[in-house]
Amino acid sequence: LKMSWFWFYLPLHLLMVACLCHSIKAPTTSSQQSFKTDLLNFYNSLILADGKETTIHLLKDIPKRYYFVLEEGRALAPFTITVTPCDVPIEWSMLVQKASASFLGKAARGDHEIQEVSKSQKAPSMVSTIFNYKGNSVETYMGMSSHSALYMLEFLSTERDTHITVYLTTNATSGHLYPELPMDPRIDVIGIGHTTVTLTWKHSPSVLQHRENIQYCLLVNEKHNYKSLCAAETAIRSSGMKLPPTLALSLSPYLLEPQQVMILSNSELSIINKASSGEVRQICMGIKNTYTVPNLSPSTQYYFDVFVVNLLTNASAAYTGTFARTLEEPEPKVMELKDGKVIQVVLDGKKHKFYSLQYQARHKKIQFTFQLCRGQVRVHITKNGKTVALENISGLRYFSLKGKLLDTYLVQLRSTEESNSSVKVQVSPHFHKPLFPLLPESLKIKSFSKLRTCNSVTIAWLGTQEESKYCVYKKQIEEDQVWVELRNMDRCSGPESRHKSEKVLCKYFYDINLQRAVTTETIKGLDVGTLYLFDVYLFGPSGISIRYHSKVVKTRKKC
Protein backbone atom coordinates (compact mmCIF):
# COMPACT_ATOMS: atom_id res chain seq x y z
CA LEU A 1 0.00 0.00 0.00
CA LYS A 2 2.83 2.38 0.86
CA MET A 3 4.49 1.71 -2.52
CA SER A 4 1.27 2.40 -4.40
CA TRP A 5 1.04 5.82 -2.76
CA PHE A 6 4.66 6.47 -3.67
CA TRP A 7 4.08 5.79 -7.37
CA PHE A 8 0.95 7.96 -7.27
CA TYR A 9 2.85 11.04 -6.08
CA LEU A 10 6.05 10.47 -8.04
CA PRO A 11 4.83 11.86 -11.45
CA LEU A 12 3.51 15.04 -9.80
CA HIS A 13 6.83 15.58 -8.07
CA LEU A 14 8.75 15.12 -11.32
CA LEU A 15 6.32 17.44 -13.09
CA MET A 16 7.08 20.27 -10.66
CA VAL A 17 10.82 19.66 -10.90
CA ALA A 18 10.63 19.83 -14.69
CA CYS A 19 8.56 23.01 -14.65
CA LEU A 20 10.96 24.65 -12.26
CA CYS A 21 13.99 23.63 -14.33
CA HIS A 22 12.44 25.09 -17.49
CA SER A 23 11.65 28.33 -15.68
CA ILE A 24 15.32 28.79 -14.73
CA LYS A 25 18.04 29.27 -17.31
CA ALA A 26 20.85 26.75 -17.23
CA PRO A 27 23.44 27.95 -14.71
CA THR A 28 26.70 29.52 -15.74
CA THR A 29 29.75 29.40 -13.52
CA SER A 30 28.82 32.74 -11.92
CA SER A 31 25.22 31.74 -11.23
CA GLN A 32 25.70 28.19 -9.94
CA GLN A 33 25.18 29.26 -6.31
CA SER A 34 21.90 31.03 -7.16
CA PHE A 35 20.73 27.98 -9.09
CA LYS A 36 21.47 25.71 -6.14
CA THR A 37 19.63 28.10 -3.82
CA ASP A 38 16.55 28.03 -6.05
CA LEU A 39 16.59 24.24 -6.13
CA LEU A 40 17.05 24.13 -2.36
CA ASN A 41 14.08 26.46 -1.88
CA PHE A 42 12.01 24.20 -4.11
CA TYR A 43 12.88 21.02 -2.28
CA ASN A 44 12.15 22.79 1.03
CA SER A 45 8.72 23.78 -0.29
CA LEU A 46 5.57 21.75 0.26
CA ILE A 47 2.62 20.63 -1.81
CA LEU A 48 -0.56 22.38 -0.72
CA ALA A 49 -3.35 19.95 0.16
CA ASP A 50 -6.56 20.27 -1.83
CA GLY A 51 -9.84 20.57 0.07
CA LYS A 52 -8.17 20.91 3.46
CA GLU A 53 -7.21 23.83 5.71
CA THR A 54 -3.44 23.90 6.24
CA THR A 55 -1.65 25.64 9.10
CA ILE A 56 1.65 27.23 8.04
CA HIS A 57 4.30 28.56 10.44
CA LEU A 58 6.38 31.48 9.19
CA LEU A 59 9.75 32.64 10.49
CA LYS A 60 10.51 36.35 10.34
CA ASP A 61 11.93 37.51 6.96
CA ILE A 62 12.10 33.93 5.59
CA PRO A 63 9.71 33.31 2.69
CA LYS A 64 7.87 30.02 2.50
CA ARG A 65 6.48 28.53 -0.69
CA TYR A 66 3.73 26.04 -1.39
CA TYR A 67 2.75 24.56 -4.78
CA PHE A 68 -0.29 23.04 -6.38
CA VAL A 69 -1.10 21.86 -9.93
CA LEU A 70 -4.43 22.10 -11.70
CA GLU A 71 -5.60 18.83 -13.21
CA GLU A 72 -4.74 18.38 -16.87
CA GLY A 73 -7.51 18.12 -19.42
CA ARG A 74 -10.19 19.99 -17.43
CA ALA A 75 -11.91 22.85 -19.22
CA LEU A 76 -12.02 26.07 -17.23
CA ALA A 77 -10.81 24.49 -13.98
CA PRO A 78 -11.91 26.67 -11.00
CA PHE A 79 -9.96 27.05 -7.79
CA THR A 80 -10.21 29.10 -4.59
CA ILE A 81 -7.47 30.13 -2.15
CA THR A 82 -8.31 31.58 1.31
CA VAL A 83 -5.47 32.87 3.51
CA THR A 84 -6.08 33.77 7.18
CA PRO A 85 -3.31 35.62 9.09
CA CYS A 86 -3.36 34.59 12.76
CA ASP A 87 -1.38 37.47 14.19
CA VAL A 88 0.64 40.18 12.46
CA PRO A 89 0.18 41.41 8.86
CA ILE A 90 1.84 39.22 6.22
CA GLU A 91 2.69 39.47 2.55
CA TRP A 92 1.61 36.76 0.16
CA SER A 93 1.50 36.36 -3.60
CA MET A 94 0.44 33.79 -6.17
CA LEU A 95 2.52 32.96 -9.24
CA VAL A 96 1.52 30.73 -12.12
CA GLN A 97 3.68 28.85 -14.60
CA LYS A 98 1.74 27.82 -17.68
CA ALA A 99 3.15 25.18 -20.03
CA SER A 100 2.00 23.10 -22.95
CA ALA A 101 0.17 19.88 -22.26
CA SER A 102 2.85 17.89 -24.16
CA PHE A 103 5.58 19.43 -22.04
CA LEU A 104 3.74 18.66 -18.78
CA GLY A 105 3.04 15.18 -20.06
CA LYS A 106 6.74 14.58 -20.65
CA ALA A 107 7.49 15.93 -17.21
CA ALA A 108 4.91 13.61 -15.69
CA ARG A 109 6.55 10.64 -17.47
CA GLY A 110 9.99 11.77 -16.38
CA ASP A 111 11.46 11.88 -19.92
CA HIS A 112 15.24 12.26 -19.93
CA GLU A 113 15.14 14.90 -22.66
CA ILE A 114 13.45 17.28 -20.22
CA GLN A 115 16.33 16.94 -17.81
CA GLU A 116 18.92 17.56 -20.55
CA VAL A 117 17.71 20.87 -21.86
CA SER A 118 20.33 22.81 -23.76
CA LYS A 119 21.78 25.82 -22.00
CA SER A 120 20.64 28.04 -24.83
CA GLN A 121 17.14 26.61 -25.05
CA LYS A 122 14.31 28.70 -23.62
CA ALA A 123 11.77 27.08 -21.31
CA PRO A 124 8.45 26.28 -22.99
CA SER A 125 6.58 28.05 -20.17
CA MET A 126 6.00 31.49 -18.70
CA VAL A 127 5.97 32.54 -15.00
CA SER A 128 3.74 35.46 -13.98
CA THR A 129 2.39 36.97 -10.76
CA ILE A 130 -1.41 36.93 -10.77
CA PHE A 131 -2.12 38.15 -7.22
CA ASN A 132 -0.41 39.74 -4.24
CA TYR A 133 -1.61 41.06 -0.87
CA LYS A 134 -0.24 42.63 2.30
CA GLY A 135 -2.22 42.91 5.54
CA ASN A 136 -3.85 40.91 8.35
CA SER A 137 -7.35 40.48 6.91
CA VAL A 138 -8.77 37.20 5.68
CA GLU A 139 -8.32 37.29 1.91
CA THR A 140 -9.80 34.98 -0.74
CA TYR A 141 -8.68 34.60 -4.36
CA MET A 142 -10.98 32.87 -6.83
CA GLY A 143 -9.50 31.86 -10.14
CA MET A 144 -10.31 29.95 -13.31
CA SER A 145 -7.81 28.39 -15.70
CA SER A 146 -8.13 26.67 -19.07
CA HIS A 147 -4.44 25.67 -19.17
CA SER A 148 -2.41 23.05 -17.41
CA ALA A 149 -0.38 25.06 -14.90
CA LEU A 150 1.81 24.96 -11.85
CA TYR A 151 0.88 27.49 -9.13
CA MET A 152 3.17 28.78 -6.42
CA LEU A 153 2.09 30.57 -3.23
CA GLU A 154 4.75 32.57 -1.42
CA PHE A 155 4.26 33.83 2.15
CA LEU A 156 6.41 36.27 4.11
CA SER A 157 6.22 37.79 7.62
CA THR A 158 8.42 40.85 8.16
CA GLU A 159 7.37 41.68 11.75
CA ARG A 160 7.93 38.47 13.72
CA ASP A 161 7.44 34.72 13.70
CA THR A 162 3.78 33.89 13.17
CA HIS A 163 1.42 31.36 11.66
CA ILE A 164 -1.41 31.42 9.11
CA THR A 165 -4.02 29.06 7.72
CA VAL A 166 -4.48 28.39 4.01
CA TYR A 167 -7.42 26.67 2.35
CA LEU A 168 -7.29 25.45 -1.26
CA THR A 169 -10.13 23.85 -3.17
CA THR A 170 -10.33 22.94 -6.84
CA ASN A 171 -13.74 21.28 -6.57
CA ALA A 172 -16.60 23.69 -7.18
CA THR A 173 -19.20 21.09 -6.16
CA SER A 174 -17.69 20.15 -2.80
CA GLY A 175 -19.42 22.98 -0.93
CA HIS A 176 -17.95 25.72 1.18
CA LEU A 177 -15.59 25.04 4.07
CA TYR A 178 -16.20 28.55 5.41
CA PRO A 179 -19.70 29.74 6.31
CA GLU A 180 -21.02 32.58 4.15
CA LEU A 181 -21.41 36.15 5.37
CA PRO A 182 -24.46 38.26 4.50
CA MET A 183 -24.20 41.11 2.00
CA ASP A 184 -24.03 43.52 4.96
CA PRO A 185 -21.69 41.88 7.55
CA ARG A 186 -21.79 44.72 10.08
CA ILE A 187 -22.73 44.32 13.77
CA ASP A 188 -25.27 46.88 14.99
CA VAL A 189 -25.37 48.18 18.57
CA ILE A 190 -29.04 48.63 19.45
CA GLY A 191 -28.82 49.17 23.20
CA ILE A 192 -26.29 50.41 25.78
CA GLY A 193 -26.67 50.33 29.57
CA HIS A 194 -24.40 50.70 32.58
CA THR A 195 -23.43 47.01 32.54
CA THR A 196 -24.96 45.69 29.29
CA VAL A 197 -24.68 46.12 25.53
CA THR A 198 -27.24 44.70 23.08
CA LEU A 199 -26.05 43.65 19.61
CA THR A 200 -27.72 42.40 16.45
CA TRP A 201 -26.48 41.25 13.06
CA LYS A 202 -27.94 39.89 9.81
CA HIS A 203 -28.21 36.14 9.40
CA SER A 204 -25.57 34.22 7.48
CA PRO A 205 -26.96 32.47 4.36
CA SER A 206 -25.31 29.31 5.75
CA VAL A 207 -27.72 29.35 8.70
CA LEU A 208 -30.67 29.03 6.33
CA GLN A 209 -29.03 26.16 4.40
CA HIS A 210 -27.32 24.19 7.19
CA ARG A 211 -29.20 25.23 10.32
CA GLU A 212 -28.11 22.29 12.49
CA ASN A 213 -24.38 22.64 11.72
CA ILE A 214 -23.97 26.42 12.13
CA GLN A 215 -23.79 28.65 15.19
CA TYR A 216 -22.79 32.20 16.09
CA CYS A 217 -20.01 32.91 18.60
CA LEU A 218 -19.33 36.31 20.13
CA LEU A 219 -15.96 37.53 21.40
CA VAL A 220 -15.83 40.42 23.92
CA ASN A 221 -12.67 42.19 25.08
CA GLU A 222 -11.35 45.63 26.05
CA LYS A 223 -8.41 45.91 23.60
CA HIS A 224 -9.41 45.75 19.93
CA ASN A 225 -11.37 43.85 17.30
CA TYR A 226 -10.14 40.58 15.79
CA LYS A 227 -10.46 39.77 12.10
CA SER A 228 -10.56 36.00 12.62
CA LEU A 229 -10.96 33.40 15.34
CA CYS A 230 -7.43 32.33 14.52
CA ALA A 231 -6.15 35.82 15.43
CA ALA A 232 -8.21 35.83 18.63
CA GLU A 233 -6.78 32.47 19.71
CA THR A 234 -3.24 33.73 19.16
CA ALA A 235 -3.83 36.94 21.11
CA ILE A 236 -5.35 35.11 24.08
CA ARG A 237 -2.54 32.55 24.19
CA SER A 238 0.08 35.30 24.07
CA SER A 239 -1.48 36.82 27.22
CA GLY A 240 -0.57 33.68 29.13
CA MET A 241 -3.86 31.79 28.86
CA LYS A 242 -4.52 28.40 27.33
CA LEU A 243 -7.56 27.74 25.20
CA PRO A 244 -9.68 24.78 24.25
CA PRO A 245 -8.83 23.33 20.80
CA THR A 246 -11.00 25.95 19.12
CA LEU A 247 -12.97 29.02 19.98
CA ALA A 248 -15.90 27.55 18.08
CA LEU A 249 -16.90 26.13 21.45
CA SER A 250 -18.98 23.16 20.42
CA LEU A 251 -20.79 21.67 23.38
CA SER A 252 -18.60 18.57 23.49
CA PRO A 253 -16.85 18.35 26.90
CA TYR A 254 -13.25 19.38 27.41
CA LEU A 255 -11.12 20.38 30.39
CA LEU A 256 -10.87 24.06 31.24
CA GLU A 257 -7.70 25.65 32.50
CA PRO A 258 -7.68 27.08 36.07
CA GLN A 259 -7.84 30.64 34.71
CA GLN A 260 -10.98 29.85 32.69
CA VAL A 261 -14.57 29.99 33.90
CA MET A 262 -17.28 28.19 31.92
CA ILE A 263 -20.94 29.18 32.22
CA LEU A 264 -23.68 27.17 30.50
CA SER A 265 -27.22 28.53 30.71
CA ASN A 266 -30.22 28.84 28.41
CA SER A 267 -28.39 26.95 25.63
CA GLU A 268 -25.57 29.52 25.73
CA LEU A 269 -21.97 28.57 26.41
CA SER A 270 -19.74 31.29 27.85
CA ILE A 271 -16.05 31.06 28.63
CA ILE A 272 -14.27 33.84 30.49
CA ASN A 273 -10.48 33.82 30.15
CA LYS A 274 -8.98 35.76 33.01
CA ALA A 275 -5.57 37.43 32.72
CA SER A 276 -3.72 40.30 34.28
CA SER A 277 -4.38 42.34 31.14
CA GLY A 278 -8.13 41.89 31.41
CA GLU A 279 -10.60 39.22 30.40
CA VAL A 280 -11.80 37.84 27.09
CA ARG A 281 -15.31 36.43 26.93
CA GLN A 282 -16.49 33.95 24.36
CA ILE A 283 -20.22 33.31 24.10
CA CYS A 284 -21.83 30.89 21.66
CA MET A 285 -25.58 31.35 21.35
CA GLY A 286 -26.69 28.95 18.63
CA ILE A 287 -28.37 30.71 15.70
CA LYS A 288 -29.76 33.72 17.61
CA ASN A 289 -28.68 36.93 15.86
CA THR A 290 -29.52 39.31 18.72
CA TYR A 291 -27.71 39.15 22.03
CA THR A 292 -27.40 41.26 25.20
CA VAL A 293 -23.93 41.02 26.75
CA PRO A 294 -24.31 41.09 30.57
CA ASN A 295 -22.00 41.81 33.52
CA LEU A 296 -19.90 44.53 31.89
CA SER A 297 -18.17 47.32 33.82
CA PRO A 298 -19.64 50.83 33.70
CA SER A 299 -17.89 53.56 31.69
CA THR A 300 -15.72 51.02 29.84
CA GLN A 301 -15.11 50.59 26.10
CA TYR A 302 -15.61 47.06 24.79
CA TYR A 303 -14.91 45.51 21.39
CA PHE A 304 -17.34 42.97 19.96
CA ASP A 305 -16.69 40.39 17.23
CA VAL A 306 -19.20 37.90 15.85
CA PHE A 307 -18.10 34.74 14.07
CA VAL A 308 -20.32 32.32 12.20
CA VAL A 309 -18.91 28.83 12.80
CA ASN A 310 -19.29 25.55 10.93
CA LEU A 311 -19.52 22.97 13.72
CA LEU A 312 -18.51 20.11 11.43
CA THR A 313 -15.24 21.67 10.26
CA ASN A 314 -14.61 24.35 12.96
CA ALA A 315 -14.07 26.80 10.09
CA SER A 316 -15.44 30.29 10.66
CA ALA A 317 -16.08 33.65 9.02
CA ALA A 318 -15.87 37.00 10.80
CA TYR A 319 -18.45 39.76 10.73
CA THR A 320 -17.15 43.34 10.75
CA GLY A 321 -16.36 44.04 14.40
CA THR A 322 -17.78 46.96 16.37
CA PHE A 323 -17.23 48.66 19.71
CA ALA A 324 -19.30 50.48 22.34
CA ARG A 325 -18.77 52.24 25.64
CA THR A 326 -21.02 51.39 28.57
CA LEU A 327 -22.76 54.23 30.39
CA GLU A 328 -21.15 55.88 33.39
CA GLU A 329 -22.27 54.53 36.71
CA PRO A 330 -24.53 56.96 38.57
CA GLU A 331 -23.11 58.53 41.70
CA PRO A 332 -23.73 56.19 44.64
CA LYS A 333 -26.36 57.29 47.09
CA VAL A 334 -24.89 58.63 50.30
CA MET A 335 -26.62 57.72 53.54
CA GLU A 336 -26.51 60.14 56.46
CA LEU A 337 -25.18 58.82 59.78
CA LYS A 338 -26.80 60.02 63.01
CA ASP A 339 -25.21 60.19 66.45
CA GLY A 340 -25.44 56.91 68.35
CA LYS A 341 -27.51 55.09 65.72
CA VAL A 342 -26.24 51.69 64.53
CA ILE A 343 -26.80 50.64 60.91
CA GLN A 344 -25.88 47.35 59.24
CA VAL A 345 -24.60 47.46 55.65
CA VAL A 346 -24.52 44.49 53.24
CA LEU A 347 -21.85 44.79 50.54
CA ASP A 348 -22.01 43.05 47.15
CA GLY A 349 -18.68 41.30 46.62
CA LYS A 350 -19.21 40.56 42.91
CA LYS A 351 -19.83 44.16 41.82
CA HIS A 352 -17.04 45.61 44.02
CA LYS A 353 -19.14 48.72 44.64
CA PHE A 354 -18.48 51.28 47.38
CA TYR A 355 -21.17 51.97 49.96
CA SER A 356 -20.98 55.58 51.15
CA LEU A 357 -21.98 57.04 54.54
CA GLN A 358 -21.75 60.73 55.45
CA TYR A 359 -21.58 62.41 58.86
CA GLN A 360 -21.38 66.08 59.81
CA ALA A 361 -19.66 66.51 63.16
CA ARG A 362 -21.46 68.30 65.99
CA HIS A 363 -18.49 67.79 68.32
CA LYS A 364 -14.75 68.19 67.99
CA LYS A 365 -14.07 64.58 69.07
CA ILE A 366 -15.96 61.70 67.51
CA GLN A 367 -15.62 57.94 67.36
CA PHE A 368 -16.49 55.57 64.52
CA THR A 369 -17.20 51.96 65.49
CA PHE A 370 -17.21 49.08 62.98
CA GLN A 371 -18.25 45.52 63.79
CA LEU A 372 -17.48 43.03 61.01
CA CYS A 373 -20.34 40.57 60.65
CA ARG A 374 -19.31 38.48 57.63
CA GLY A 375 -16.57 38.40 54.97
CA GLN A 376 -13.84 41.01 54.67
CA VAL A 377 -14.41 44.78 54.49
CA ARG A 378 -12.15 47.69 53.58
CA VAL A 379 -12.90 51.00 55.32
CA HIS A 380 -11.90 54.40 53.91
CA ILE A 381 -12.68 57.51 56.01
CA THR A 382 -12.09 61.05 54.73
CA LYS A 383 -12.49 64.37 56.56
CA ASN A 384 -13.28 67.31 54.30
CA GLY A 385 -11.90 65.31 51.37
CA LYS A 386 -8.63 64.20 53.05
CA THR A 387 -8.00 60.58 54.07
CA VAL A 388 -7.82 60.01 57.84
CA ALA A 389 -8.21 56.20 57.94
CA LEU A 390 -7.81 53.37 55.43
CA GLU A 391 -7.63 49.69 56.39
CA ASN A 392 -9.22 46.24 56.25
CA ILE A 393 -11.12 45.57 59.45
CA SER A 394 -11.72 42.43 61.47
CA GLY A 395 -13.81 41.93 64.58
CA LEU A 396 -14.61 45.18 66.40
CA ARG A 397 -12.67 48.30 65.37
CA TYR A 398 -12.75 51.86 66.77
CA PHE A 399 -11.49 55.06 65.11
CA SER A 400 -11.22 58.07 67.44
CA LEU A 401 -10.84 61.30 65.46
CA LYS A 402 -10.38 64.99 66.27
CA GLY A 403 -11.51 67.92 64.18
CA LYS A 404 -13.67 71.00 64.11
CA LEU A 405 -17.38 71.54 64.43
CA LEU A 406 -19.30 70.85 61.21
CA ASP A 407 -16.42 68.87 59.66
CA THR A 408 -17.80 66.52 56.99
CA TYR A 409 -16.75 62.86 57.25
CA LEU A 410 -17.30 60.41 54.38
CA VAL A 411 -17.10 56.67 55.07
CA GLN A 412 -16.69 54.32 52.08
CA LEU A 413 -17.08 50.58 52.57
CA ARG A 414 -16.20 47.84 50.08
CA SER A 415 -16.13 44.05 50.23
CA THR A 416 -12.69 42.62 49.46
CA GLU A 417 -14.10 39.15 48.72
CA GLU A 418 -16.14 37.75 45.84
CA SER A 419 -18.90 36.80 48.29
CA ASN A 420 -21.08 39.31 50.10
CA SER A 421 -19.80 40.97 53.28
CA SER A 422 -21.64 42.85 56.01
CA VAL A 423 -20.65 45.28 58.75
CA LYS A 424 -22.31 47.31 61.51
CA VAL A 425 -21.41 51.01 61.74
CA GLN A 426 -21.93 53.58 64.49
CA VAL A 427 -20.63 57.13 65.03
CA SER A 428 -20.91 59.06 68.29
CA PRO A 429 -19.20 61.85 70.24
CA HIS A 430 -16.05 60.56 71.93
CA PHE A 431 -17.43 61.20 75.42
CA HIS A 432 -20.72 59.50 74.64
CA LYS A 433 -21.46 56.32 76.54
CA PRO A 434 -20.26 53.49 74.26
CA LEU A 435 -22.98 51.42 72.65
CA PHE A 436 -20.84 48.29 72.42
CA PRO A 437 -19.61 46.54 75.58
CA LEU A 438 -16.09 46.92 76.94
CA LEU A 439 -14.03 44.13 75.39
CA PRO A 440 -11.45 41.86 77.03
CA GLU A 441 -7.91 41.56 75.69
CA SER A 442 -8.87 38.47 73.71
CA LEU A 443 -12.13 37.02 72.41
CA LYS A 444 -10.77 33.47 72.19
CA ILE A 445 -12.43 30.56 73.98
CA LYS A 446 -10.03 28.02 75.51
CA SER A 447 -10.77 24.33 76.08
CA PHE A 448 -8.89 22.01 78.42
CA SER A 449 -8.03 18.69 76.79
CA LYS A 450 -7.18 16.99 80.09
CA LEU A 451 -10.58 17.91 81.50
CA ARG A 452 -12.50 16.42 78.57
CA THR A 453 -14.60 13.34 79.34
CA CYS A 454 -17.00 11.22 77.33
CA ASN A 455 -19.93 13.49 78.24
CA SER A 456 -18.44 16.83 79.30
CA VAL A 457 -15.95 19.53 78.30
CA THR A 458 -14.50 22.51 80.20
CA ILE A 459 -14.04 25.89 78.55
CA ALA A 460 -12.71 29.27 79.73
CA TRP A 461 -12.80 32.87 78.51
CA LEU A 462 -11.59 36.31 79.58
CA GLY A 463 -13.77 38.98 81.16
CA THR A 464 -13.35 42.68 81.94
CA GLN A 465 -13.33 45.07 84.89
CA GLU A 466 -16.96 45.90 84.15
CA GLU A 467 -19.69 43.59 85.38
CA SER A 468 -21.32 42.07 82.30
CA LYS A 469 -23.60 39.26 81.29
CA TYR A 470 -22.18 36.20 79.48
CA CYS A 471 -24.26 33.48 77.80
CA VAL A 472 -22.96 30.10 76.57
CA TYR A 473 -24.49 28.20 73.63
CA LYS A 474 -23.62 24.80 72.13
CA LYS A 475 -24.42 23.11 68.83
CA GLN A 476 -23.74 19.56 67.67
CA ILE A 477 -21.92 19.55 64.33
CA GLU A 478 -20.46 17.08 61.82
CA GLU A 479 -16.73 17.20 61.06
CA ASP A 480 -17.25 17.96 57.36
CA GLN A 481 -19.49 20.92 58.26
CA VAL A 482 -17.03 22.79 60.49
CA TRP A 483 -15.41 24.90 57.78
CA VAL A 484 -18.74 25.80 56.14
CA GLU A 485 -20.30 26.69 59.50
CA LEU A 486 -17.43 28.97 60.50
CA ARG A 487 -17.20 30.51 57.03
CA ASN A 488 -20.90 31.43 56.79
CA MET A 489 -21.29 32.54 60.40
CA ASP A 490 -22.78 36.00 60.97
CA ARG A 491 -20.59 37.38 63.76
CA CYS A 492 -23.06 40.20 64.42
CA SER A 493 -26.02 37.93 65.10
CA GLY A 494 -26.93 37.59 68.76
CA PRO A 495 -28.50 34.80 70.85
CA GLU A 496 -31.89 35.74 69.44
CA SER A 497 -30.87 33.89 66.25
CA ARG A 498 -30.16 30.65 68.16
CA HIS A 499 -32.55 27.83 68.98
CA LYS A 500 -33.62 27.70 72.60
CA SER A 501 -32.33 24.13 72.95
CA GLU A 502 -28.79 25.36 72.19
CA LYS A 503 -28.63 27.61 75.27
CA VAL A 504 -26.45 26.22 78.07
CA LEU A 505 -26.34 28.99 80.72
CA CYS A 506 -25.94 32.73 81.42
CA LYS A 507 -23.77 34.26 84.18
CA TYR A 508 -22.45 37.62 85.39
CA PHE A 509 -18.87 38.23 86.45
CA TYR A 510 -16.04 40.77 86.52
CA ASP A 511 -12.77 41.43 88.32
CA ILE A 512 -10.98 44.68 89.03
CA ASN A 513 -7.71 42.82 88.55
CA LEU A 514 -7.54 41.94 84.84
CA GLN A 515 -5.10 39.12 85.62
CA ARG A 516 -7.93 37.34 87.46
CA ALA A 517 -10.74 38.36 85.07
CA VAL A 518 -11.21 34.85 83.71
CA THR A 519 -13.99 32.34 84.18
CA THR A 520 -14.42 28.63 83.45
CA GLU A 521 -17.48 26.51 82.84
CA THR A 522 -17.96 22.74 82.57
CA ILE A 523 -20.71 21.74 80.13
CA LYS A 524 -22.18 18.33 80.96
CA GLY A 525 -24.74 15.99 79.40
CA LEU A 526 -22.91 15.67 76.05
CA ASP A 527 -22.80 12.63 73.76
CA VAL A 528 -19.79 10.31 73.55
CA GLY A 529 -17.26 11.01 70.75
CA THR A 530 -19.30 13.91 69.41
CA LEU A 531 -18.16 17.24 67.95
CA TYR A 532 -19.66 20.44 69.42
CA LEU A 533 -19.48 24.12 68.47
CA PHE A 534 -19.41 26.44 71.54
CA ASP A 535 -20.20 30.17 71.51
CA VAL A 536 -20.00 32.82 74.23
CA TYR A 537 -21.93 36.12 73.97
CA LEU A 538 -20.94 39.23 75.95
CA PHE A 539 -23.72 41.78 76.59
CA GLY A 540 -23.07 45.50 77.07
CA PRO A 541 -25.15 48.11 78.96
CA SER A 542 -27.20 48.86 75.85
CA GLY A 543 -28.06 45.20 75.30
CA ILE A 544 -25.92 44.81 72.16
CA SER A 545 -23.93 41.56 72.25
CA ILE A 546 -20.44 40.67 71.08
CA ARG A 547 -19.74 37.10 70.03
CA TYR A 548 -16.48 35.42 71.06
CA HIS A 549 -14.63 33.33 68.48
CA SER A 550 -16.40 29.97 68.16
CA LYS A 551 -14.65 26.93 69.63
CA VAL A 552 -14.97 23.37 68.30
CA VAL A 553 -14.43 20.59 70.86
CA LYS A 554 -14.95 16.81 70.62
CA THR A 555 -15.85 14.61 73.59
CA ARG A 556 -13.80 11.49 74.27
CA LYS A 557 -14.75 8.17 72.66
CA LYS A 558 -13.54 6.07 75.59
CA CYS A 559 -13.33 6.89 79.28
From TrEMBL:
Repeat keyword on record: yes
Compartment list: Secreted
GO molecular function: heparin binding
Function (record text): Secretory protein that plays a role in various cellular processes. Acts as a chemorepellent acting on gonadotropin-releasing hormone (GnRH) expressing neurons regulating their migration to the hypothalamus. Also promotes neuron migration, growth and survival as well as neurite outgrowth and is involved in the development of the olfactory system. May also act through the regulation of growth factors activity and downstream signaling. Also regulates extracellular matrix assembly and cell adhesiveness.
SUPFAM superfamilies per record: Fibronectin type III (SSF49265)
UniProt protein name: Protein NDNF
InterPro entries registered for this protein in UniProt: FN3_dom, FN3_sf, Ig-like_fold, NDNF, NDNF_C, NDNF_Fn(III)_1, NDNF_N
Ranges where the Fibronectin type-III domain occurs: 179-316, 437-545
GO cellular component, one term: extracellular region
Organism of origin: Opisthocomus hoazin
